Amino acid sequence: MAQYRLEVQAIRRSEGRSAVAAAAYRSASRLHDQRLEMVFDYAAKGGVVFAGIMAPEAAPAWLLDREVLWNTAEAADRRVDSRTAREVLVSLPHELTDDQRLELLRAFIAEGLVAKGMIADYAIHRPDAHGDPAIITPTSWSRPG
Fold first, then answer.
1. Which domain holds residue 92?
2. What is the pTM of this model?
3. 96 beta partners
4. Alpha-carbon distances of 76 from 29, 36, 50, 67, rounded to whole Å
5. Most C-beta atoms within 10 A of its C-beta, which of 11, 36, 59, 60?
């Protein structure tokens, strides 16, 4: 049966979270967090069908590099209570193909985030062992200034 879920949460330093760590986990990749001087390596995690970054046309090309993007977001605000990113969790029906999920996600990101000047780092995960729909996680950050 088709289900839908939308959950938005902030990635906050006061909760001990890092945007770099969150991006590494969601994209199943290896990223170096310059602020914490730590490497977050989730490359062996698997389960990610697609991952990418979407940005407005005017955004500099260097922001399409996941490690640079999230280290820049972390450096933009040095307060201990900073909210360095927002994470948007979207579940889509598992009856859709991976390509259909990607098409829906990219349309959602283009209209809801990129059109408003934000950059979105997204990943589509495989449905879990219990048959739940895939979790799609566009994480957006609006460049300061």
1. 5-142
2. 0.83
3. none
4. 23, 14, 28, 14
5. 11
**Beta partners for 85?**
11
Q: How many domains does the chain have?
A: 1
- Distance set, CA 135 to CA 57, 59, 83, 93 (Å): 27, 27, 22, 10
The helix/strand/coil state of 22 is helix
pLDDT tens for the chain, 145 residues long, are 566 678 888 888 888 889 999 999 999 999 999 999 999 999 998 888 899 999 999 899 999 999 999 999 888 888 877 788 888 888 877 778 889 989 998 999 999 989 988 899 999 887 765 444 444 444 444 544 4
Q: Specify the CATH number for the domain of residue 46.
A: 3.30.930.30
